[in-house]
């Protein structure tokens, strides 16, 4: 810390020394000047006394000395008398020597006779006096001859005083030596006293101020101590706070980076399908929106290709979601290989993919891409132990034409409608959108609305299709197939309205109605003597999913009095696989005595081990395979395999869609027990059925 006391001491000491060093000599100079003035006044007075007392002899001497040599003057009588008088006048005064110069600067009189005759013309004192001024000089003399002998170590004031004549002209000069030794001594000792006094006063002042300063220094040190302690505490607090801030900052940075990661993950998830990593619906819509505007500006064309996997539902239902997911990933990567870099492939959800093709010059280019997409499915997908054969249906909409530049959804919806048309043409097809498809889509909506009140309006009818024994051709049963007589749409076939009923959930009420109506009809026939051995009813997965299904079934059986052993329920492979606890539910149905058949067999992906566990008695070979008999060796091979399987697993087999005798004989040759198809009869209303199959009495 700055040492105020030391600083003060040093500066004060220097100031005191300086003050003493300046004030002492100043005092001496002033006093000396004063003393010189007084002594000079005395010398002037003394000269006046001399001049007055020795006026005549002195004047004579002054006059006579001019032009005479020194020895002549020295010998004059006047000189002797002047000398006597001079000594007399000097007696008792401090004047110790008197000299008289004539105008020529010669000493014509001196109390020291040896000096008479000397010349001092060039002496400054003489010069001043001859010009009318008085000049004094203070000298220190080691020895000087005086009236009473020689004086040693004396301070002498020599004054040159002009001697004025009557006419006030300077006739000569007095030089008077006055012994001022006592005064000078006194002055010197006074100077020391003054110096000592100054030192003492300043020392006292210094001491008092020192006390004040030391006290101030104490206060300052105390304050500094406190400030230092406060600063130390503050520094500690600042250090701690800095550390805390660093930690908080680090936490913040970590949080920010976590948030950034989460945000980028969220962004990624917001725009990507987590399963396949492809762009999702939102991403596709935004890109299409942007592309539409760009394409409109550049006067170009673009295409939207809606891709749907034809058999994905069956795979998913029969082999489980794990396999389904893996299949979707494999499909996405295979599709990606065929899409150009500038195009965009996205997954809309489920088994629906969509592709945006930009900068389209010709429709052919789109057809090529659609063809490539379909061709991509020619090779089977290997998922685990499964080798899965799939096909894809592609619907295409084009811009401009199939949607405005601000109608992203129109283009997507139209491509979707085109895809449905492609699907209806058979598996593995593509189709361009046409405006009539929108009409069909609207019809579908209208159909759903009409379906809702069709049950209440009693617009449904149950038709029956015969099932015959392959060898004897005898009636062994009938399949109940629903028909809709709509006042607005006319007769609507199940292939049109069952999917709509399934999608809308209306199938539950409709399916239960068919079940009840079939049982009621069966019992009516039985009571009236037409004994049909068995009747089959189709079940939708939506019905099975209902927890109250068994209760509803029991109630129908109870209400109608139907013998459960005469009832056969047909479930598609995919329905059985899709239903979580199918085995347990089917067991319950079996316990009731109801027969079970697996419909559309061969189109799904049932595993043999699972099939073995199912309490099913019958397999129904799908119509699509029967259709290929005699035309497609692949279909025939599948039928043979199904027959082998059924034999080894002890299933009864029904072939549906049998239209020709050739098909019937092929199936008979393989040991198929029952046939169903136009060859033996179409599905007809109960009256016609009875009329056809009643045995004449
Ligand atoms: N070309 C041709 N077709 C033949 C031949 N023999 C039978 N068919 C048709 O094949 C379909 C067989 O029924 P499905 O496989 O259960 O397929 C049925 C079934 O899955 C569903 N369905 C019909 N009625 C019901 C029902 O009451 N409930 C449920 N859940 N589905 C039903 O609608 C599908 C179609 O029914 P339909 O149009 O009646 O068509 C029936 C039948 O008319 C033939 O020799 N040639």
Structure description:
With 697 residues, this protein is α/β, with parallel strands linked by helices. The chain has three domains: 4-185, PAS domain (Beta-Lactamase, 2-Layer Sandwich); 281-433, 2-Layer Sandwich (Alpha-Beta Plaits), CATH 3.30.70; 447-627 and 654-659 and 674-693, TIM Barrel (Alpha-Beta Barrel), CATH 3.20.20. It contains 23 helices and 21 strands. It has an eight-stranded mixed barrel with strand order 13-14-16-17-18-19-20-21, surrounded by four helices. A five-stranded antiparallel sheet has the order 2-1-5-4-3. Strands 7-8-6-11-12 form a five-stranded mixed sheet, sandwiched between helices. Strand 11 (392-399), helix 11 (408-424) and strand 12 (430-432) form a beta-alpha-beta unit. The chain is rod-shaped, with a radius of gyration of 73 Å. The protein starts with a helix and ends with a helix. The model has no long low-confidence stretch (mean pLDDT 88). The chain crosses the membrane at residues 6-27, 191-212. InterPro entries: Biofilm_reg_signaling, EAL_dom, EAL_sf, GGDEF_dom, Nucleotide_cyclase, Rev_trsase/Diguanyl_cyclase.
Outline of the structure:
Helices cover 55% and strands 21% of the residues.
What are the main properties of this structure?
697 residues, alpha/beta, Beta-Lactamase, Alpha-Beta Plaits, TIM Barrel, 3 domains, eight-stranded mixed barrel, five-stranded antiparallel β-sheet, 23 helices, rod-shaped, binds ligand C2E, transmembrane
Distance between the termini: 137 Å
Characterize the quaternary organization of these chains: single chain
Instruction: Name the overall outline.
Output: rod-shaped
**In which range does the helix fraction lie?**
40-55%
Ions, cofactors, ligands: which are bound? ligand C2E
Name the CATH superfamily assignment of the largest domain.
EAL domain
Number of helices: 23
